[in-house]
Write a structure and sequence with these properties.
Elements (H helix, E strand, L loop, with lengths): L2 E5 L2 E3 L5 E8 L7 E7 L5 E7 L6 E3 L7 E6 L4 E6 L8 E11 L2 E6 L3 E5 L2
Parallel strand pairs: 2-11
Antiparallel strand pairs: 1-3, 3-8, 4-5, 4-9, 5-6, 7-8, 9-10, 9-11
């Protein structure tokens, strides 16, 4: 059974930090590129960051560049999102996703999400 389970969300003041974790099971975690997405109330789900399966390359959406850091530990089947200098507009449900492209086919898995609220 494939699972991605996020944790680490919560309420934080503007300027604060949080670290989200996403643990995968039921699939070969190290062969998947891992990403974080977020969805604010009434808005579409937006891509936040991606780390390649080899873990050597990271990509960030412009609104979070230089504030968020994605990292992974394949020995723990875990991907992290370190979020610093948080702003109220970062408030959203954060989801992790695993993606693997092989032989023209794409396989994706999503977690259930974790709420992040930035407010004073």
């Amino acid at each position: 059974q494939v699972q991605l389970v996020e944790s680490g969300g919560g309420l934080v003041q503007p300027g604060g930090s949080l670290r989200l974790s996403c643990v995968g099971s039921g699939f070969t975690f190290s062969t998947y590129a891992m990403s974080w997405y977020r969805q604010a109330p009434g808005k579409e789900r937006d891509w936040v960051a991606t780390i390649t399966s080899a873990g050597g390359t990271t990509f960030y959406a412009d609104p979070v560049k230089d504030r968020f850091t994605i990292s992974g530990d394949n020995t723990k089947n875990t991907v992290y999102l370190q979020m610093n200098s948080l702003k109220p507009e970062d408030t959203a449900v954060y989801y992790c996703k695993g993606t693997r492209r092989l032989g023209g086919m794409t396989r994706e898995y999503w977690g259930q999400g974790t709420q992040v609220t930035v407010s004073s």
